[in-house]
Design brief:
By secondary structure, the chain is an all-alpha fold. It has one domain (about 5-110). The protein contains 4 helices and no strands. The chain has helices at about 5-30, 35-60, 65-90, 105-110. The longest helix has 30 residues, at about 65-90. The radius of gyration is 18 Å and the shape is elongated.
Length: about 110
Amino acid sequence: MNSINEIIAYIFIAIGLAFDFFGCLGLVRFPDIYNRLHSSIKCVTLGTSSILFGLFLYKGFTHTGVKALLCIGFLVLTAPVSAHVLARSAHKSGVKLWEKSVCDKYAEDKK
């Protein structure tokens, strides 16, 4: 019989796989770069971090588990910043929003 930590680890890994699947689906289905970027960053931040946390729960405080925690910290700090940089540079270089987009905060900031 599996211990309770292993069961919780499998649950976190399954949740992470679901986030990664739907994030990849969003990359294929969303209409413009800004929506796709939002989907991919949610995929990385929530999905991959959840998988790594499940790995940490499964392995414990071993070399592998500590590396998983360090990777989570790295992803949480760098993924949103890189998404912001990519979205801002795409907007500054003239990449248009989808025609049904509701608001453009970057254009409002220019005024």
